[in-house]
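--- STAGE predict ---
source: upstream dedup step, 1 unique chain passed
mode: sequence only
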Amino acid sequence: MNNIKYLFFTFLILTMINCDKKNDALQVEVYETSEAGNSLTKVTEFAKSDSLITINLNSDEKFQTITGFGGSFTESSAYLLNRLSKENRKKVLDAYFSEEGANYSLTRTHIASCDFSLSNYTYAKVENDMTLENFTIEDDKDDLIPMILDAKAISKDGFKIISSPWSCPPWMKDNKNFVGGKLLPEYNDVFALYFSKYLTAYKKEGIDIWGVTVINEPHGNGNNWESTHFSPKEMTDFVQNHLGPKLEKDGWGKTKILGYDQNRAGIKEWADEMYRDEKSSKYFAGMAIHWYESTYEVFPEDLQYAHNKAPNKYLIETEGCIDSEIPHWQDDAWYWKKEATDWGWDWASEKDKYLHPKYAPVNRYANDIIGCLNNHVDGWIDWNMVLDRQGGPNWFKNWCVAPVIVDPEKDEVYFTPLYYTMAHFSKFMRPGAVKIGCVIDSKDVVSTAVKNPNGSIAVAIFNPTDTNYSIELNLKNKKTTITIPAKALQTVLIKG
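--- STAGE serialize ---
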């Protein structure tokens, strides 16, 4: 009898020890995209590595609330989708907006034409129509609006849309042209009405617009395609005295107005002007930014400056892409290649060349999104969702790369590694998530983490090196060890 009791208590103690070990282990799911060929693949087996990196998570340390991740509805993308078979058109939209796909939650579109339109057009075609009686969005009804409506029908949780004009109607400008020039002061109120008319027209089509930017790239784009120039003071005065009051008066007061909408290196002067006092900042919900100033630099000091200037305002990346490049077709390796591309290297001045080293497209996306999240950015929007093998259509022939490339003549679709890179964030980091403390003891491998509304924690880890690493994840006295291979992006889900 004593031997039986001894064996029973021994079994009980061993069981308790094993339970404690299980309780000390983080339960995780790991999804990976890699140069070796994984594409948002669930990974369950991990090879050992002698190189160890530690990531310490602190869910009690809280930063910005996540607005979302996604891409942009452009006329070019919508036009291409309409040239595909119904099956492939649906395949692409499902990939972007379904729960099984990337589940995009934050998007952008253009107000009237942009470079990724088939031609120049405005919604106010009649000159000096000061009441905009002839306002029309007919140009959007063949391609752009159907794409947005079909995406809405697929998306279970819905998504926010930010709309941006590239140019005000040319007749309102000092040069009477789509490209360049400034809004004449006598048309301030008419341009504000233009926004209100747009919001009303899209609402009638069944599309709610969450936010607007005042103008895309107020510094201009070298006078190449649609643009309207604003200084920080001109834009702030326009929002304070015209756009903000007009939208409020017309019942659009909840529509978010985002200022700036250009490269991060110019943030400080815009933040100083937009948020100079209560009156100037009243109608600004936040600031929109782009990434084109550099191919690697996140500009953390500038992002932190904007956040500290207005901690309760949005800070959203509204555009980024691999630009001035013809996409590589069915060539995953190119998107991981270190010196695949750079839009500025050939033309940048000697003093600015250091900002434009050649880079791997996947690296640029992954590093930038993680860097933004680690510096108070709450939303990140890619540019075109779909382009053709030329990198268009684009009336200016300003070719770019998109995460999904299509050949409408052959009815073929190519999901590039950039699609899966975006999905690592949009799929697993949901609106309302909170950025939490995440410290990694590595300079080469980068990471960030959020706690989702459902209680799960999503950790993004990017390893651009040629070394495989073991990763020890620590959270509140629990830990687990996984492995990330060379040139790989992982999202680790810790269940709530």
